[in-house]
Amino acid sequence: MMGVYEDRVLSELYVVYDADGTVIGEVIYSVRKWLGSHCSACDITHGVHHEKPEFTEFKSAFRVPVLNIHRDEMDVRLRVCVAGRLPCVVGRLSNGEYVFLVDNPTLEMCKGSVELMQREIEAGIARNAIALPDDTNDWQGEDQQVPGEQACAMPMNVRDSSVPYV
């Protein structure tokens, strides 16, 4: 097969927060933050009350949809991929597979910077040999081993209720 390796094309990017998206979850997160705990992804993407303008700009300029989701909003396959490693950034490939791209220690090192997070996302994409739509990176064959692959496989018989998000 010549051309872009079709199964390695990014279709969506998920920034997954270590907080719940409910009203109660938001209140709990606010109290935790007031007590000194925080979510490094939240620090990067949000200011005091709203999304940072530079993150909004990053999302609109990125070549695939960038979705901000909370830990209680993950589907079962994403939960399996994340495996409790929150917060994080995960890519979804065109074949539906999730690939873990950026972990919490790396997000912590970004110290609230959208620009540094973007660099780490790009590094994770490159490390996992993932193409972006319209990339001209050519793969030489289907049997070529993908360097640095961190794909998250899941048996199809795993039920949603059996995969905790905490």
Automatic annotation (TrEMBL):
Protein origin, superkingdom: Eukaryota
Query: By what name is this protein known?
Result: Uncharacterized protein
**Organism whose genome encodes this protein:** Rhodosorus marinus
